[in-house]
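Design request, C-alpha cells follow.
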C-alpha cells in the first residue's frame, strides 16, 4: 500500500502555486494482513534502497517487520520473512489456515510453499481481474486507512509550519491509523468480499462485466443444404459476404502476475516450483561448467604461449652463440 497526498486548493489564475509537502518523498510500501476474526496482523514496512534514520523503529510495536528493496516494493525474500516472522506466530493455533493473497508472483517461491505445507497453511490467489472485489483490504480497509494517514499528515503540517513526515516517522502515523481500525470493520470487509462467511452472492451481478463476445457454432444435427438439380451446396448471400466474427485481441499481461485464482500450496504448484528450481540449478551448473572450461582453455593458451616464448628465447640464444663462434673462427 502506497500513499499519495492529493487535496484541492484555491489559488490565483496567474503565478506559481507552492504548497508544503507533508508526506514522504521516496516510495514506502506497507504490506498489511487482516484476519476474519477482526485482527490486524503485524505489517511489513519496505523502504527504498536503505533504512531511514536510526530511530525509524521508535513508536511502533516491536513485532513489526522492516525491510529494504531496490525499488521499495515486495519481493520473494521479504515475503518469506514476513510469512515466517509475522504471519505464522500470529495466525493462531487452529489448523488448517487459509491465506488469501493478491496475484503477484513475489508471493510464490519454493521455500514459502514448503513452509506453508509444513505449517498446514493453505495459500490461494484471487483472480487477476477481480482483486478489488475479492480482497477484503481493498473492499473496506485500505481506502479509509489511507485517508486517515493523509489526514494526520496534513494536520501535522498545518499545526506546525515546516513539519515534514519523513520515512523515519511515517510508520508511527500508520500505527496510529491501524489502531483506529475496528474489528467490526474488518469482519465487514470479509463479509462484503464473500470470503467469510462464504457467500457466492456477496458480489452483485452489476459489478461483473459479462462477456461481450459470442461465437455462433453451427448445428451439427442440421443436414447440409444442397441443390436438387445440380447437387451443389447452398448458402445464403449474407453467409458469404459477412466476415466471420473476430476474436478480441488478448491483453498483454505482465509476466509477474497470475491470470487466475489458484491454490499455491497444492501438490501441482509444489512440483512446478521444484521442477523450476531443478532447471535453474541445471542451468547454473552448466554455466559454471562452461566458465570452468573457458578458464582451462585460457590456462592452456597461456602455457602454450609461455612454451613458444621459451623456445624463441632458446633459438635466439643459439643464434647468438653461433654468431660468436663464427667471429672467433674468423679472428683466428
Amino acid at each position: 500500500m502506497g500513499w499519495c497526498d492529493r487535496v484541492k486548493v484555491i489559488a490565483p489564475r496567474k503565478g506559481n502555486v507552492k504548497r508544503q509537502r507533508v508526506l514522504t518523498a521516496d516510495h514506502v510500501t506497507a504490506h498489511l494482513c487482516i484476519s476474519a476474526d477482526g485482527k490486524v496482523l503485524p505489517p511489513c514496512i519496505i523502504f527504498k534502497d536503505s533504512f531511514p534514520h536510526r530511530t525509524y523503529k521508535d513508536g511502533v510495536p516491536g513485532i513489526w517487520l522492516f525491510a529494504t528493496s531496490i525499488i521499495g516494493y515486495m519481493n520473494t525474500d521479504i515475503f518469506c520473512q514476513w510469512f515466517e516472522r509475522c504471519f505464522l506466530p500470529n495466525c493462531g493455533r487452529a489448523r488448517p489456515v487459509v491465506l488469501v493473497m493478491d496475484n503477484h508472483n513475489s508471493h510464490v517461491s519454493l521455500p514459502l510453499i514448503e513452509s506453508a505445507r509444513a505449517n498446514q497453511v493453505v495459500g490461494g490467489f484471487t483472480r487477476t481481474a477481480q482483486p478489488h472485489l475479492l480482497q477484503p483490504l481493498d473492499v473496506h480497509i485500505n481506502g479509509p486507512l489511507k485517508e486517515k494517514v493523509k489526514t494526520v499528515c496534513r494536520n501535522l503540517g498545518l499545526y506546525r509550519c515546516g513539519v515534514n513526515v519523513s520515512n523515519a516517522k511515517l510508520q508511527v502515523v500508520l500505527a496510529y491509523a491501524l489502531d483506529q481500525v475496528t474489528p467490526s470493520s474488518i469482519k465487514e470487509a470479509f463479509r462484503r468480499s464473500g470470503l467469510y462467511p462464504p457467500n457466492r452472492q456477496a458480489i452483485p451481478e452489476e459489478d461483473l462485466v459479462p462477456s461481450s463476445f459470442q461465437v455462433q457454432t453451427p448445428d451439427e444435427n442440421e443436414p447440409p443444404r444442397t441443390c436438387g438439380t445440380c447437387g451443389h451446396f447452398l448458402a445464403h448471400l449474407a453467409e458469404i459476404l459477412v466476415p466471420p466474427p473476430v476474436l478480441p485481441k488478448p491483453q498483454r499481461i505482465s509476466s509477474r502476475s497470475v491470470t487466475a485464482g489458484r491454490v499455491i500450496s497444492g501438490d501441482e504448484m509444489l512440483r512446478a516450483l521444484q521442477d523450476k528450481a531443478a532447471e535453474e540449478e541445471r542451468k547454473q551448473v552448466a554455466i559454471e561448467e562452461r566458465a570452468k572450461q573457458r578458464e582451462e582453455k585460457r590456462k592452456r593458451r597461456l602455457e602454450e604461449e609461455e612454451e613458444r616464448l621459451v623456445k624463441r628465447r632458446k633459438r635466439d640464444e643459439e643464434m647468438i652463440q653461433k654468431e660468436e663462434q663464427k667471429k672467433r673462427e674468423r679472428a683466428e
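Comment from the thread starter after seeing the answer: thanks! The mean pLDDT is 80.
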